[in-house]
Structures are given as structure tokens and as C-alpha cells.
Design brief:
Elements: H1 2-73, H2 76-84, H3 87-101, E1 105-109, H4 127-133, E2 138-144, H5 146-152, H6 154-160, E3 162-163, E4 177-178, E5 181-191, E6 197-206, H7 211-221, E7 233-239, E8 242-246, H8 265-273, E9 278-284, E10 287-297, E11 303-312, H9 314-344, H10 350-364, H11 379-472, H12 480-504, E12 514-516, H13 518-528, H14 530-535, E13 539-544, E14 550-552, H15 554-571, E15 577-584, E16 589-596, H16 624-634, E17 638-644, E18 648-656
Parallel strand pairs: 13-15
Antiparallel strand pairs: 1-6, 2-5, 3-4, 5-6, 7-8, 7-11, 9-10, 10-11, 12-14, 15-16, 16-18, 17-18
Helix pairs in contact: 1-7, 1-9, 1-10, 1-11, 2-3, 5-6, 9-11, 11-12, 13-15, 15-16
């Protein structure tokens, strides 16, 4: 009987422990597969984001160097030396620009690539010279040969020389050095007095061995707290498949950069030969990295290198396996407790054991259940059931915690990406504002001199014309039309100078803002443009319903209205129609619109209509809308335009309400 009881007890143990063991193994296996898959997918998402930020930083750095070169070339010192064609002053100024901008070389050359003063041509023509000759500053990636680097500077040629290091998994090559240079080539056009490009400023930044360049990008991409503890983020610039600028270490325990090492053949084929982006784990010099590669295209559209961003895979693997082992240990401990309870409770009744086995079987099928024993069950089996339920709770809690952590990781990646995009946009806006302020400063200096030098002669011309008419008397009737034409042209010169001064120095023309009735100003303006409208028999319709007073300056608002109505008059044909409407704008001010049924504005020109000196009408200065924009900005007002080619144009102006 005892033997039979022992046999039943053993069978009960098998029935209890075997399903429990199998269920635990399945849960651990599912946890391992699910966690590794999701974790690896998130690592690739981060690598993709890092590569995109690296590419954006690379492009923004090129653009910033070109902007800095353009700003230096527009300084008064350089422009004075250029206008005088003073060779010594130009050589010194160009050298100073190189040091101030942080370039590796800079040259003053002709559009054909020859020295401007020396006339020496070394056959170094570049497609960028053709684009810059058209008057547009340009930049791009270009590969310089050793001979071309020597002609620029022996020091540059020496910097470009890199001994190739044998690299595991790289494609075998016959050569043992890389002597070419990857250069960020910048070209800025210099016009003559007639506006034609007479010379070029050709400058460049050598990427070979440029540690500061990749380190700045690395700080942007892999800032503090962006990686797991112990992981290392790296950025690399490749010339062909050779690392010419990198912060990847030559070995795991070395602080030496892996310059001259080469990319694996698998990555080379996909990125350089097929032109596709690589986003996967890759062997980098001496270790495995979660990596992103994409090709670098030169100014001729050829793939000449690669841009890389990646981070060490090992710390993430260690963290993952550490977490798995902790779960295995916890589960094993719970299994031991359950086994002990099962052995101790095997003396119970068969039916409760059978019920427990049934519950375990259903749990193996994926259902979430708990063991619910009758109240008549022995205390031992009841304890076993309770402990087993606790184990299931812990497993489910761990699963829920991992899922929550994965969701939080996705949110953090999205937040970091959004923050980086906002920083990039902010940097872009700041750069554009700096360029605009530099241009306004240059125009201000230029127009101040022009106003001084031209206004006095024009006053003398007008005075002597009056004297000439008086002296000629009746004989002057024969040249009356010619004299009137001269007076008109002199007055036009004065108007152009005044527009230039008002555009370049809007702060000098910003009187105090007072409360104004915009409807009354519109009606008064109708009298000022009545002559222009009558010449083309244009109807001016006014629909003025605004009741709110605005904060502004009467003369400047009239100038804005005159500019818009005169522009509309030029756009419509005979018997055309112009409509001016005013409405209260959400109790915040007045919305004023000026509409016409003229020819409209092409979509590709809408973004340029507020640029200074841009005009589609003959005889126009191109400053009307620029001055209008500056005036409205000084009043904290906004202007926008909507136009369809062939249907007409509408300008919308939002003017804030006056607040006492």
C-alpha cells in the first residue's frame, strides 16, 4: 500500500511539475524572442534617426561655411580692395578671410580657374565655377588629386596622405596609401561694375584628418544621456571606403583614431556600388556597431564616399542578457518553491491536483487564469495554488513592465527626434536672420553713401534746369518736352534713393503709433491714386466694414495702400477691377485685403515678391513690396499673399488694434 501511495505521489508530482516546467520554458522563450525583436527594432530606429541628424549636420556645416565666406566677402574692407583691384590689399584680405572663416585654403581666380593676378592656369576647372559665374554662391563635395593639393599647399597634400591599415572584413586592395583629398569646395562670385562675374573666391575645407569636424557632429548626434551606459557613439567620413575623418578608435582599448582603416566589403557593395542606405549591425574596425551608412555624392553626381553614424552594440546586448538572466533566476527560484510545495502537498487529494493540472493546461494555451481550489482542499495544496498564482502575477507584471518600457522608449525617441528637428529649424532661422541683417547693414552703408553723393548733384541739376528755362524764355518751348523728361528722371532718382534709405534703415522711419480709423485712410487714399486708376479706366470698389481702431502711422499706412493699389493697377488690364475690404479681426484688430482680377503671380515667384530689387514691371525699383513689408513689421502687422496665375491676386494685411 505504501508503495502504491508513493507511485501515486510520483504521478501527481509529474502531473503538476511537468506542465509547470513547460509553461515556464514557453514563457521564457516567448519573452526572449519578443524582447530581442522589439529591442533590436528600436536600436535600428535610433540608428536611422542618428544617421538623419548626422546628414543634416553635415549639410548645415557646409552651408554655414558658405554663409560665413559670403559675409566676409561683403565687408567694406574687402569691397574697397576689390573695387580698387589692389593686389597687395586683396592678397592680405583674402588671407584674413581664410583665417577668420577657418578654411584650409582660399584663392582669387578667374571664372576659367586661372590665377586672377598671376594668370597661371593649372587645369583645375570645376563645375562649381560655371554655377558661380552665373552670380550664385555655391558649395559641394569635390575630390582633389595629390597634384592639385600640391598646387594649393604642400601642407594640405601632406595632410591628405593616409597609410592604409589592414582591416578585417575589408576588400583587399593593391595600394598601401590614400593620397586624394575630400574637400568641401566653396565658390563665391565677385562682380565687376556692370554686375558681370569677373572673378571668383575659391575656398575649401579638407576633410582628411579633420577631427574637429566629425567631433562637432558627434556632439550634436550623441549628446549626454543619448546612449546606454558604456556605449560609444561614433561618426565617420569615408573617401571611397577609407576612413579619412573619424572618432572610431583603432582598437577597443586605444584612444588612437582609426584613420586609414576601411569599411567591410558587405557595406561597400550596398552603399558605394548599389547607392543604397545601410541600416543594420556592422563590423567596424574591431567590434560590432549598430550602424547607419549612406553615400556621399560629389558635385558631379558620383558616389565618392560615405557618411557613417553608429554606436557600440555590446553594452545593449549585455544589458539585455543581464535582464534575461535575472528573469531566469527569479523564475527558477519560484519553480523551486513550487516544486517543494508540490512535493509537500502530494499527500493531498487527487481531484484538487487534477483541477490544478487542468488550469495549467489552459494557461499553456495562452489564457490568463488562476488556480481556484475548493475551500475543502488541504492547506498544503491551497498554499501551492496561492504561490503558483503569485508566480503568474509576477510573470505578467514583468511582461507588462517590459511593454511599458518599450512604449516609453518609443516616446523618448520621438521626443528626441522632434527636439532635434526644432533645434535644426532654429539654427536655420537664426542663420537666415544673420544673413538678412548682414545684407541690410551692407545696403545701409551703400545707400548712405549713394544718398550723399547723388542728392546734392540732383538738387544742382534741378536748380540749373529752372535757371535754364528762365534764361531761354520763349525759346525754351522748343525743348520743353526734353527739359520735362530730365526733371522726371531726376525725381525718379530721388524716389529710388528714398526707397533704398527707407528699406535699409526701417528704424529711422518708425514714428510713434497712434489710434487710426483705417476706413477713413482707405477713402483718403482713393484720391491719391485716382489719376492712376483713371488712365486705365480701372474700377476701385471699397467694402469697408471694420469698426475697430488700429495702431499705426497714417502716412506709412497710406504708403502701403498706394504701393499695393499701384501694383494692382500695373497687373490688371484696361477696365479692370480692384477691391479693398476691411473687417474686424477677432477683436484683435482689422483684416484689410486688396484684390485685383489681373494676371496673377506665378507660383514659383510668390516666395520672392517681398525680396528687395525683385520686380516684374519695367522701370520698377523692386523696393515697393520690400518697403511695405518693413513698414508693416515696424507696426507689428503681418502681410500675406494669395494668387492664381491668370485669375488675380489678393494681399491680406492683419493690423493690431490700438490699446490705450
Amino acid at each position: 500500500m505504501l508503495s502504491r501511495l508513493r507511485s501515486i505521489r510520483q504521478r501527481l508530482l509529474v502531473l503538476v511539475l511537468l506542465p509547470l516546467f513547460l509553461m515556464t520554458c514557453v514563457l521564457l522563450a516567448l519573452f526572449y524572442v519578443w524582447t530581442s525583436e522589439v529591442g533590436y527594432r528600436h536600436l535600428l530606429m535610433k540608428a536611422s534617426t542618428d544617421l538623419a541628424v548626422t546628414q543634416e549636420s553635415f549639410n548645415n556645416t557646409q552651408a554655414s561655411y558658405l554663409t560665413r565666406l559670403a559675409l566676409r566677402a561683403q565687408t567694406q574692407r574687402f569691397q574697397d580692395a576689390w573695387r580698387a583691384r589692389d593686389e597687395a590689399a586683396l592678397v592680405q584680405t583674402v588671407s584674413d578671410i581664410r583665417d577668420q572663416v577657418g578654411l584650409d585654403y582660399i584663392q582669387l581666380i578667374t571664372p576659367q580657374g586661372c590665377g586672377y593676378f598671376s594668370g597661371v592656369c593649372r587645369g583645375t576647372g570645376s563645375p562649381l565655377f560655371v554655377s558661380a559665374t552665373a552670380g550664385q554662391p555655391v558649395s559641394g563635395i569635390e575630390i582633389f588629386t595629390q597634384q592639385r593639393l600640391q598646387s594649393l599647399s604642400p601642407e594640405l597634400a601632406q595632410r591628405a596622405l593616409l597609410p592604409l591599415t589592414a582591416t578585417e572584413k575589408a576588400r583587399p586592395v593593391d595600394r598601401d596609401t590614400e593620397d586624394r583629398g575630400m574637400v568641401v569646395h566653396l565658390v563665391y562670385p565677385l562682380p565687376d561694375e556692370e554686375g558681370r562675374t569677373e572673378a571668383l573666391l575659391s575656398a575649401g575645407l579638407l576633410m582628411n584628418g579633420n577631427a574637429g569636424f566629425v567631433d562637432r557632429i558627434k556632439e550634436t548626434v550623441y549628446g549626454s544621456g543619448s546612449l546606454a551606459f558604456g556605449s560609444v557613439g561614433t561618426v565617420t567620413i569615408f573617401l571611397d571606403d577609407v576612413r579619412i575623418s573619424t572618432n572610431v578608435p583603432a582598437s577597443q582599448d586605444s584612444a588612437v583614431r582609426a584613420l586609414g582603416t576601411r569599411v567591410s566589403d558587405q557595406v561597400r557593395k550596398k552603399v558605394l556600388e548599389q547607392g543604397e542606405r545601410w541600416l543594420d549591425r556592422a563590423f567596424v574596425v574591431s567590434d560590432w556597431y549598430i550602424s547607419g551608412y549612406q553615400p556621399i555624392v560629389d558635385i558631379r553626381g558620383e558616389r565618392v564616399g560615405m557618411l557613417y553614424a553608429g554606436f557600440l552594440e555590446a553594452p545593449f546586448e549585455q544589458e539585455f542578457y543581464s535582464w534575461v538572466w535575472q528573469l531566469i533566476i527569479i523564475t527558477g527560484a519560484i519553480m523551486l518553491i513550487c516544486t517543494w510545495l508540490a512535493v509537500w502537498g502530494a499527500k493531498g487529494i487527487y481531484r484538487p491536483v487534477e483541477a490544478m493540472v487542468g488550469v495549467i493546461g489552459r494557461i499553456r494555451q495562452g489564457r490568463r487564469e488562476r488556480i481556484d481550489l475548493p475551500v475543502t482542499t488541504s492547506s498544503d495544496l491551497m498554499t501551492l495554488g496561492t504561490e503558483f498564482n503569485l508566480m503568474l502575477d509576477q510573470v505578467e507584471q514583468q511582461h507588462d513592465h517590459i511593454q511599458q518600457a518599450a512604449e516609453q522608449l518609443e516616446m523618448k525617441v520621438a521626443e528626441r527626434t522632434l527636439a532635434l528637428n526644432e533645434h535644426i529649424k532654429l539654427l536655420q532661422r537664426t542663420r537666415e536672420q544673420l544673413v538678412a541683417k548682414g545684407k541690410l547693414a551692407a545696403i545701409g552703408e551703400l545707400t548712405a553713401g549713394i544718398a550723399h553723393e547723388i542728392n546734392n548733384p540732383t538738387a544742382v541739376i534741378l536748380g540749373y534746369l529752372d535757371l535754364l528755362v528762365v534764361e531761354l524764355g520763349d525759346a525754351g518751348d522748343q525743348v520743353k518736352d526734353e527739359v520735362q523728361l530730365i526733371v522726371q528722371q531726376v525725381e525718379r532718382i530721388r524716389c529710388i534713393i528714398n526707397d533704398l534709405l527707407q528699406f535699409s534703415r526701417p528704424g529711422d522711419h518708425s514714428p510713434a503709433l497712434v489710434a487710426l480709423d483705417l476706413n477713413e485712410i482707405v477713402r483718403a487714399t482713393e484720391l491719391l491714386v485716382k489719376h492712376d486708376l483713371g488712365q486705365k479706366q480701372i474700377r476701385l470698389k471699397m467694402d469697408l466694414r471694420a469698426g475697430c481702431q488700429v495702431a499705426g502711422n497714417r502716412q506709412q499706412l497710406q504708403q502701403v495702400l498706394i504701393n499695393l493699389i499701384v501694383n494692382a493697377t500695373a497687373a490688371v488690364g484696361d477696365n479692370g477691377r480692384i477691391t479693398v475690404r476691411s473687417r474686424d479681426w477677432r477683436n484683435n484688430g482689422v483684416l484689410l485685403s486688396v484684390s485685383d482680377n489681373g494676371c496673377g503671380i506665378a507660383a514659383d515667384l510668390l516666395g520672392r515678391i517681398f525680396d528687395p530689387f525683385f520686380s516684374r514691371t519695367s522701370g520698377g525699383t523692386g523696393l515697393g513690396l520690400s518697403v511695405t513689408y518693413s513698414i508693416l513689421q515696424s507696426m507689428n502687422a503681418e502681410i500675406n499673399v494669395r494668387s492664381r496665375e491668370g485669375h488675380g491676386t489678393t494681399f491680406f494685411i492683419w493690423i493690431p488694434a490700438y490699446k490705450a
